[in-house]
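Sorry to interrupt, but I need a hand with the structure work. It will help me judge whether the discrete encoding reads sensibly. Write everything out right here, beneath this request:
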Amino acid sequence: VHAFLDNQTVIQAISESTPYSSQHVAIQIKNDIYYYLKHDTTNCIDISWVPGHNNILGNKRADTLTKGAANLPPLGHTTTSFAFERQLS
């Protein structure tokens, strides 16, 4: 899997353990990546920063799919952080 992201904060959040306001999302992504990599030792994930997605083949299609996926219900279990739980209180 090759992921090209234009948001350095997201890349840092899923690669480090620094707490921040959307930590629950990063924890879920980390859990999903861990499961994917552990499930099959031949699986590989490459996350790269790009300065923007303009003029990248398939960008408009990826944006459309992403927006559609954002409206889907979560799959399986969800994980939240203490910071997120405090925000809900």
Remarks:
- The CA atoms of residues 1 and 15 lie 16 Å apart.
- The helical segments are 8-15, 23-39, 59-70, 82-88.
- The chain has a mean pLDDT of 77.
